[in-house]
Structures are given as structure tokens and as C-alpha cells.
């Protein structure tokens, strides 16, 4: 006996996220040079889209023309020339180190503020007194 026709399952529709394709003079499809994290040589890249609300600094999604890798780099580090890209990477590294130190200080202060509530101080004092007795 022949089989009945199979009904096609409807695939759930995925909403596409609107991408920002122009930002600060750069457009999607532009060619630029960028030095990726851990590299020392600038790579030729194609701009895909932008992330202006990134947690550290505005960023841009690019694909490396030679290797085809998809990467996200800070907008501050892309340029039209290799030489400029290399110098921008040095400036970015300095900025990132200072940002990281600032963030660590803020986290440390937040941890201290959370752990130094009056209830914790009273319980710590009781523990110290019981150890002394």
C-alpha cells in the first residue's frame, strides 16, 4: 500500500536583527586595515556592520579578506592604511589597559561595599570575641 503524502513542517520564522551599516564615516562593504588582538601585522578587512553600544567601546564586525575569518574589532583600531592601523593598535592597547584597571577598581569597591554591611561587621566582631575567649 502506498504511503500518504508527508506534510511539510513549518519552520519558525526568525526575526532578523536590524544591523547598523553606516557609522562615523564608515559603511558596510568598505575595505580597511585592522590589527587583531594577539597579532602584530595589519590585516585587510571588509566592514560588515557596526556595534555602537558595545560594553568597552564602539566596535565593528569585519571579515579578513585573506583568511575569511569573521572578527569584531574596536572602531578606534581600523584605518585606510596599514601604517596607521599599526599605530592605532598601540594607542588602543594603552586605552584598554587603563580601562581594565579602572574596571577592576570599581569591582573591588563594589565587593567591599557589599561585604561591609553592618550585619556582617557585627557577626565578624562576635567571631573575634569568641576566638579571644
Give your account of this protein's structure.
- The protein contains two helices and six strands; from the N terminus they run E-E-E-E-E-E-H-H.
- It has 133 residues and is α+β, with helices and mostly antiparallel strands.
- It has one domain (22-132): SH3 type barrels (Roll).
- The longest helix is centred in the last third of the chain and has 34 residues, at 82-115.
- The chain is flat.
Summarize the helices and strands and which ones pair or pack.
Blueprint: E1 22-23, E2 26-27, E3 31-34, E4 43-51, E5 59-64, E6 70-74, H1 82-115, H2 118-132
Antiparallel strand pairs: 1-2, 3-4, 4-5, 5-6
Figure out the total of helices.
2
Class by alpha and beta content: alpha+beta
CATH-defined topology: SH3 type barrels
| Arithmetic mean of pLDDT | 80
Biggest β-sheet: strands ordered side by side in the sheet: 3-4-5-6
Biggest sheet architecture? 4 strands, antiparallel
| Separation of the first and last Cα atoms | 90 Å
**Helix content, binned percent:** 25-40%
CATH architecture: Roll
The figure for the number of domains is 1
Element pattern in H and E:
EEEEEEHH
Low-pLDDT segments, ≥5 res = none
> What's the CATH class, please?
Mainly Beta
- Give the C-alpha Rg: 26 Å
Shape annotation: flat
Residue fraction in strands: 15-25%
Got a strand count? Answer: 6
Give the tags:
133 residues, two-stranded antiparallel sheet, 6 strands, SH3 type barrels, 2 helices, 37% helix, alpha+beta, four-stranded antiparallel sheet
Amino acid at each position: 500500500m502506498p504511503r500518504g503524502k508527508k506534510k511539510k513542517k513549518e519552520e519558525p520564522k526568525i526575526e532578523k536583527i536590524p544591523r547598523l551599516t553606516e557609522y562615523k564615516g564608515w559603511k558596510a562593504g568598505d575595505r580597511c586595515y585592522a590589527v587583531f588582538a594577539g597579532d602584530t601585522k595589519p590585516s585587510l578587512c571588509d566592514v560588515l556592520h557596526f556595534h555602537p553600544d558595545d560594553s568597552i567601546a564602539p566596535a565593528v564586525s569585519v571579515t579578513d579578506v585573506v583568511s575569511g575569518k569573521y572578527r569584531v574589532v574596536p572602531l578606534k583600531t581600523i584605518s585606510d592604511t596599514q601604517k596607521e592601523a599599526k599605530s592605532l593598535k598601540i594607542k588602543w592597547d594603552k586605552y584598554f589597559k587603563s580601562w581594565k584597571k579602572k574596571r577592576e577598581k570599581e569591582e573591588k569597591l563594589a565587593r567591599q561595599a557589599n561585604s561591609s554591611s553592618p550585619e556582617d561587621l557585627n557577626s565578624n566582631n562576635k567571631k573575634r570575641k569568641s576566638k579571644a575567649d
